[in-house]
Amino acid sequence: MKIGFIGLGNMGAPMAANLAKAGHNVTGFDVAGTTAQGVAQASSAEEAARDQDVVITMLPNGDILRGVAQTVLPAMRAGATLIDCSTVDVDSARAVASRAQDAGILSVDAPVSGGIGGAAAGTLTFMAGGSAEAFARAEPLFDIMGQKAVHCGEAGAGQAAKICNNMILGVTMIATCEAFALADKLGLDRQKMFDVVSTSSGYSWTMNAYCPAPGVGPNSPADNDYQPGFAAELMLKDLGLSQQAAEAANADTPMGQAALALYKTFVEDEDGEGRDFSAMLPRFENRTRT
Ligand code: NAD
User: Fold this and answer.
1) How many C-alpha atoms does 139 have within 13 Å on its Cβ side?
2) What number of H helices and E strands is found in the chain?
3) How far is the CA of 274 from the centre of ligand 1 (A)?
4) Parts of the chain with a pLDDT under 70
């Protein structure tokens, strides 16, 4: 396939390189001038998108996606497919899908889970929104860049699944960290806490697979001085998107709201920026009730 890839950052560059390695003809563009292995470089987004079978975007946010879509869609040929893998707000995903439809272009919103490691290894999970036809076109590429792709529904459904998942993740990480900090103050050994909770009704992915306590449970960013992993500011972004969506849909999400407020303080007023999102544990450790 002839593929245009726009946004060759931490995630986009290894994803584009994996497509090229699999034998696809990939042309990339990034405003920062970054490149990816095996990928031809275009001098504009428009040039990267022209005459391609598929155009993939991997960009920082919804405003940038809307801007890029505005220049890229008119350059694409009718019947081609646009796949956006960025994490953006549901409204932007739907707006881009609607513009694509008007231009006779198939589109899929397909945010990913799995991080930079998953992008490099080709083991991402894709959660996709769009028509069955658009998903079918994108699926062979998801198979190269990832290990699982779920077709979640119509346009925007991929972004909806992503932000609901990450709202659970943020809330659960905070709950796990505050419980560890309470256990400390009650004199409970952290390993014992893990042994009980990981096999009891308080178990979760954050406890069992990504334990925020160093030296306890499987290897995680906590064992590497909380180097990310998944940075606290990325969690803050995703919690912000969940609350933006909750407001638009008039959904009551008090825990998501509280998690957003905590990560906002952690990233903007404390030492959270650049640290893994599990560094909430040392934050709680150093605090008292008042
Ligand atoms: P990044 O900042 O490393 O990459 C984004 C790239 O887009 C940058 O290289 C930037 O120069 C480029 N860009 C910005 N505006 C552009 C434009 N107008 N035209 C062309 N290129 C432009 O970010 P990332 O970590 O690669 O993340 C990309 C997306 O994936 C984000 O939406 C993020 O939320 C999501 N995501 C990231 C991770 C992660 O662990 N990093 C995990 C899952 C999802």
Assistant:
1) 12
2) 12, 9
3) 16
4) none
